[in-house]
Amino acid sequence: MAEQFDLSHFEKSMIIREMSYADINAILEMQRLCFPGMEPWEEEQLRSHLGVFPQGQLVAELDGKVIGSCSSLLINFDEYDDRHTWDDVTDGGYITNHNQDGYNMYGIEVMVHPEYRRMQVGQRLYEARKELARELNLKSIIIGGRIPNYHKHADEMSPREYVDAVSRHKIYDPVLTFQLMNGFQLMRINPNYLRDDKASGKYATLMEWNNVDYKPVSKRHFKTSLPVRICVVQYLMRAIESFDDLASQVEYFVDVASDAHSDFVVFPEIFTTQLMSFLNEPSPSQAVRKLTEYTPQYIELFTDLAVRYNVNIIGGSHFVKEEDDEIYNIAYLFRRDGSIDKQYKIHITPNERKWWGISAGDSVRVFDTDCGKIAIQICYDIEFPELARIATDMGANIIFSPFCTEDRQGYLRVRYCAQARAVENQIYTVISGTVGNLPQTENMDIQYAQSGIFAPSDFEFARDGIVGETNANLEMVLIGDVDLEILRRQRQNGTVKQLKDRRHDVYRVEYKKD
């Protein structure tokens, strides 16, 4: 029997999915319609949300059109004052205070396009949030809800009386009534929550939905520290006769780090130029191209050592020729589970261009490890504060900087900038350099270094912000512990809070590789 109708013409497709950068303009326009008279998101705020916690940013889509959205972040709610504001809990709308180990999801906005209300779009978004909370095993979802009809009753009742009347279904409030119907319970009423919410009298109802499927985990219940042990290699450059000689020296240091139960061992920038000492190539540019032929052996060596000695290795950096026939200065992360990542050097020094023709990378990367998120910024890159800020906003707690400098002035530039980055971003920084000399190797004849591990400058950290440092110009290792739990606490409650106190309304750092 022939079908009278093609039913596909009548079907509608509503989905809830993660927000994308392509949705930003539609969300900005929708917000202007949903909240007239209130400050809308800035584009960079939404971009920050997607960079920091993409899972928590959701949209409702109907037949390809965005008709609703919600935004959230993870926190440990007990770290915030009872009378916190929206700005406090969202870091001014940028959510860079998002804590990936947080127990609570904090919802900072839900909106539905005015033309698509009464289609249970908001309920679908709330259910998606709840499902995410279950998936991430979170304790609860907390929201600071508007009470937009309060202005109609402000002359006759207090916020507390109004909320009580709404709870008893004597008054209808489009937000509070909806939240109560979705299983949220009132915790308290916060004044001055959202400075431009005149309809609510700037009040907000702090509401919580408890995840009954939550399974308590150890995380930090009984943990007062989260130490990470780092072994920094200050590597002596000396003439060798084969790749096996280099491999033998490298394995020795990895063995030392493993014996000390280190989580990371860090080698210096381009220490593999030691191989040039037996390549017998007087031209620096040709010597570099010969050096790149050892890339497979270099990668195989470090991958094997990382797994065999059960330690994450920052393999210094190495010159690599890629398919475009360009040569790059690349730092590899060799994880102890056998996986590998890499960071290209972004800023190339005049010396690297002149002698070796090195090309620049163009992306800032942050890597997940079994000790949290880290970044690698090779030598000159640590002297550009924007890169460290971008990496920190991506979640990095430690920045490793392999370096190679030939004189004290060059070394001090790296050291002072690494210490500044630690203070500016409330992170740990690590520098690892080469010492010694290669007399017969053009442009690698002398080295100067004093390697170190640096911390923010505050009471709970090492005195002078120096976790440890080597003696200058001697081959040795430095082993030190950094505590990620102290870092987390100080970002919230330190003497100064550089991350929280940034003036996003005055300036911004924009990463163009989104």
TrEMBL record:
Documented EC number(s): 2.3.1.-
Pfam families for this protein: Acetyltransf_1, CN_hydrolase
Molecular function via GO: acyltransferase activity
Signal peptide limits: none
N-acetyltransferase domain boundaries: 14-212
Domain annotation CN hydrolase: ranges: 228-484
Keywords annotated in UniProt: Acyltransferase, Transferase
Gene3D superfamilies: 3.40.630.30, Carbon-nitrogen hydrolase (3.60.110.10)
InterPro entries reported for this sequence: Acyl_CoA_acyltransferase, C-N_Hydrolase, C-N_Hydrolase_sf, GNAT_dom, UPF0012_CS
Protein family: Belongs to the carbon-nitrogen hydrolase superfamily. NIT1/NIT2 family.
This protein's name: GNAT family N-acetyltransferase
Source organism (scientific name): Planomicrobium okeanokoites
